[in-house]
Amino acid sequence: MYAINCPVCKSAELYEAYPKYAGPCITSDSEILPQATIENRICRGCGLIFNAGGTRGATEAFYRDSYSLMTRSNDAAIQSYQGPEAKSQAERTLDFMLKFRQLPESGSVLEAGAGKGEFLGHFIRHFPRWKISAFEPSRSYEYLVQANPEIAARRCGYHEYEVGENRVDLVVSLGVLEHVDNPFDMLVWANRQLTDDGYFYLRVPNFSNNPNDLFCTDHLSKLTLPTIRALAEAAGFEVIATDESGVPLFALLAKRSARTGKIGQVYDENFAILSHNEMIAQGIVNSVLECRRQANSKGEAFAIFGMASAGLFAPLLGHFEPHEIAAFLDDNRTIWGGTVHGRPIGGPELIAKKGIKHVALSVSPVYFEQIREKLAPLGVSIYTAK
Ligand SMILES: [Zn+2]
């Protein structure tokens, strides 16, 4: 018996996935939702992996009222660690787009869910002659219009926005598709906003590289490249370029005249990814618990490196008080000085300052080695998922 059907293909044949959970939850914004559920499912009909609970059905109110991704300070920005040096995620995102395809001098672009307008800020500097419009449902909208007064912006979600006659050459949507109730519906929407030879550029967290997303309350769909391909093709797009070397998956889709409407079946590919990720996610939680056990047995301090959800969930799943954690460590300087679970967030200098001897890694496995090498000289025992 399932409460809902697959949001995309409406199949009722759904299988449960890890973790089955109800209680305080953590959002992609590292905020605590006091009462929510995680009800991960994979659909036998189309292969979509999704959270049947979480913010589903309440997304409009959630983004209007509570979502504040990186608005705590105007400088807070998600950093990207792909490549030799840290760069803002927005800059890296523009780099990938221009690598996928050169753009003409002028045109029109619409960003769906533009956040604070970081990407568009870079875009304007590269393409000053483009006509730019955007919308954003959350409080970030205020920063968007403040920082980019030249953009035609509205505060709303995609359901309330249609370009009508003035179709655009490019729709951009970064970190949005995974939040909406039905990602196929949003792809169909994007297709409708585009000129006949228009493009849709998107960035989503790649579930294949991000087992932690199993814990994420508001990432309603756990998107993979097979899912993106299947949904994009059914919505009338051709996938012309992708990059999935890091946690973000970048994809450039070209509008095609024929919309098949028929969603390809990617159950087998997604089932393999899901099974692997369930193992890693449980492994990260267990590594935090093992790190704590070793630290407690020696009367020493321990920390969690990374803001990935598995680490943030470990106290909730392992039933221990977050104040036992000496600190959260992270590479993203823009969040240093903040707190999560009431514990300080900072850089590696906290290791000496707080006498930390044990560190569990709560990051995507693609970064395990890189972080292990960085922490090794600091004299701490490191715990990772096996
Ligand atoms: Zn389905």
How is the secondary structure organized here?
Blueprint lengths: L13 E13 L5 E12 L5 E3 L7 H7 L13 E2 L6 E2 H12 L7 E5 L5 H9 L4 E5 L4 H8 L4 E3 L13 E7 L8 H11 E12 L19 H10 L2 E7 L4 E8 L11 H32 L2 E5 L3 H10 L8 E3 L9 E2 L2 E4 L2 H5 L2 E6 L6 H8 L5 E3 L3
Parallel strand pairs: 6-7, 6-9, 7-8, 9-10, 13-14, 13-17, 14-16, 17-18
Antiparallel strand pairs: 1-2, 2-3, 4-5, 10-12, 11-12, 15-16
Bound molecules: zinc ion (ZN).
The site of zinc ion has 8 residues, from loops.
Largest sheet: 7 strands, mixed
Give the class-level CATH name of the largest domain. Answer: Alpha Beta
SSE order: EEEHEEHEHEHEEHEHEEHEHEEEHEHE
| Averaged pLDDT | 91
End-to-end separation: 34 Å
If classified by CATH, what would the architecture of the largest domain be? 3-Layer(aba) Sandwich
- Fraction of residues in helix: 25-40%
Q: How does the overall form come out from the CA principal axes? A: globular
Number of distinct beta strands: 18
Radius of gyration: 21 Å
Please identify which CATH superfamily of the largest domain we are dealing with.
Vaccinia Virus protein VP39
